[in-house]
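QA checklist item 7 of 12: single-chain prediction sanity check.
[x] sequence parsed
[x] length recorded as 161
[x] structure emitted
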Amino acid sequence: MSAPQAKPSPQPQRDPIPAFASAVLALYASALHDVRFPDLDLTRLQSAHDAALAAQLALEQAEERLQAAREQLQSQLDALGSCSTRALAYATVFAQGDAQLQQQITQIGAQPATPGELGREPKKRKRRAKSESDAQLFAAADVPKLQAAEPAEPRAAEHAA
């Protein structure tokens, strides 16, 4: 029987290693293979390289889980929107003859029912609407007319330069 072979470790989809670091690692892997400094050698560089690749892989896996969670949330919001729309339709039939309940249902029905809008706060306006008093604030009669200034004489120092 042959010994089981070790699975190759998964590699990240994107290479996060800067070209500079790859070039230094290649230099130490070839021409400086046997050179060791007190706190740095090929082994330390390779370990740092592997740790960066592992961190990139962990990031990509977390992004995949995040995307799956977003898709799950959207699916749940779609289901909630569909269920809510159906429930409001049932409530509309039930409320026939009850003016107050019909008014509540009408107000609820005026709200956005699209899945993308569920669970979001409505956007707030940032600027107030202009009123007539604002328009009159700068009426032409109130603005003093400016007279055109005479062109200034060039200074002698500017010509000397």
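[x] summary fact logged: The helical segments are 19-29, 42-94, 99-109, 132-137, 156-160.
[ ] second reviewer sign-off
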